[in-house]
From TrEMBL:
Organism name: Folsomia candida
Transmembrane spans: 6-27
High-level lineage: Eukaryota, Metazoa, Ecdysozoa, Arthropoda, Hexapoda
Entry-linked PANTHER family: MITOCHONDRIAL AMIDOXIME REDUCING COMPONENT 1 (PTHR14237:SF19), MOLYBDOPTERIN COFACTOR SULFURASE MOSC (PTHR14237)
Name of the protein described by the UniProt record: Mitochondrial amidoxime-reducing component 1
A Pfam family: MOSC
Amino acid sequence: MPQDLQIYYVTAFAVTTLVVGVGAWLTSIKKKSSPSKSEKLEKQRPEKWCLVGKIAKLIIYPIKSCQGVIVQEAVITTLGLKFRNHNIKDRDFMIVDKNGRSVTMVTHPGMSFITLEPSKEKDHLIMSAPGMDSITFTYPTKKLEEKFCRVKHDTKVKALDCGDEVAEWIQTFIGKEGLRLYYHHIQQTQRTFEPYMYECPQFEQSDMGAFHNETSYLMVGQESIEELNARIEKKSSWKNWRPTILIDNMSEPFAEVNWSFVKIGSENAILKASVPCYRCPLTTVDQETGVLPKDGEPLKTLRSMNKTDAFADRKLAELLKNKGIMGLRLGLYLPAGEGATIKVNDPIYAALL
């Protein structure tokens, strides 16, 4: 691959033109009420698919910004991947500070060592970390004790507190007082659109998941990681990029950011692209040591590789300008896909519109 690698992005759909002269208030209302994108997307369902790769790994991250759990198969849901024989889903849990705000590896790199997994006992969970005795607990159910928290900087989200014992365990391991674990008990997204999301033609509110940053699914190509690694001294791994679906056998690196729709194995397991994933400093945390490096790698090099000159939608091109893009954020395309099971080695098909 040449050094001056150009990453080409598929032309996005044009953002619907608003009527000239409509006031700012009416424009805001229209934006919020008119994403009847679902109806448009239903009509755009692809009929021709191209085999583009296969599933290399499936990873579920039960706690936001903590360690992922590799599984051989998982269930597709609107809120993200779910364990095959357990109710736990991707980013169902989140660690918050005393003000109810999300904390992440960027400020607490040691979170990368915390693992939450299903227990063999029904509705029980096991949390573990190096140097700590594991702790077993059940889902909180007391809805009268709902709390409010903030995932990023958007509106408040309702959640249930997992209790003092779990909180003390986390505080001991992280070494910070006031931390608690919250559970997203509501089975639909509570998130609200951020301004930039209106510039993404296929992005819908239902794509936003539970405690996810943007969307309930993230697909990354192994070939994309290898292309980046060829340019840096300390190699990154999929753990840095935190995909829920890692794919390989792609014909070229970064091909995944071009896809409009993705079909996995069966006919109903269809995901739609929301936005190419532009990455934050969390991806620089060393997953082996839990240290945030000072050189900004591998994100620094990834940013230098990103070219958006060929991106036809200028608003989206401006949004992605100078960003380090690795992977594609997606949401569930049709309700019929809810409950479909996908497995490692399942073929991946893509379609462009």
